[in-house]
């Protein structure tokens, strides 16, 4: 596990985790659209890479009550909050958490499963130094016939320049870097793993929404 990155994330979220969901709902756009698109098969398995406070896992578990849900994060501070939120939501029997590094994880070792029907990453890649490796690892964790879903910050290409400069400067304070080469990376990984890729901008370039799926 990348110890330095884990310590950095714990330092950032030691306090923020207590009000993270309240503030992020205003600018982490596209998360709920991603969750609706998951549509796992009946009794299917869903994994969130970088689950944070478990906000997304809880919403997904409520939407698909017959599914099984799993999540991991590199931050022990976030996982502490996630576990508390899951218990409060009464979903401890349907959501399983673990600590792990998105760039190099073993789903079988963490959860006893070789793959998942749906894997998703919501605003995590912009905080992971080895983000390309994280996408490749997540794609390998998708079971046959399953999908990988991604949403993250875009390049703001159709928004005012002042907005882009201000947003990027603010994000940088939290070690968040929008990935300009996300679409290209998805295409490369799709070719390497014989998958179909789809990546498109949302909200005039505010966010990327990507998917890797069977050809």
UniProtKB/TrEMBL annotation:
Keyword Transferase: yes
Domain Methyltransferase: 46-146
Entry-linked InterPro entries: Methyltransf_25, SAM-dependent_MTases_sf
Pfam families cross-referenced by the UniProt entry: Methyltransf_25
Superkingdom of the organism of origin: Bacteria
Residue ranges that the Swiss-Prot or TrEMBL entry lists as coiled coil: none
Protein name: S-adenosylmethionine-diacylgycerolhomoserine-N-methyltransferase
């Amino acid at each position: 596990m990348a110890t330095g990155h884990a310590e950095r994330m714990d330092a950032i979220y030691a306090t923020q985790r207590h009000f993270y969901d309240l503030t992020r709902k205003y600018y982490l756009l596209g998360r709920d659209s991603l969750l609706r698109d998951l549509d796992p098969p009946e009794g299917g398995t869903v994994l969130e890479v970088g689950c944070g406070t478990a906000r997304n896992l809880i919403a997904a578990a409520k939407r698909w009550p017959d599914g099984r849900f799993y999540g991991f994060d590199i931050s022990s501070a976030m996982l502490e909050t996630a576990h508390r939120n899951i218990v409060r939501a009464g979903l401890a029997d349907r959501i399983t958490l673990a600590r792990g590094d998105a760039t190099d994880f073993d789903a079988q070792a963490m959860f006893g499963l070789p793959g998942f029907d749906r894997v998703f990453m919501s605003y995590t890649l912009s905080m992971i130094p080895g983000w390309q490796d994280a996408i490749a690892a997540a794609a390998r964790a998708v079971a046959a016939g399953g999908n990988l879903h991604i949403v993250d910050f875009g390049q703001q290409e159709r928004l005012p320049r002042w907005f882009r400069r201000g947003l990027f400067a603010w994000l940088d304070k939290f070690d968040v870097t929008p990935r300009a080469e996300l679409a290209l990376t998805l295409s490369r990984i799709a070719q390497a793993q014989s998958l179909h890729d789809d990546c498109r901008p949302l909200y005039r370039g505010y966010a990327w929404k990507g998917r890797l799926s069977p050809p």
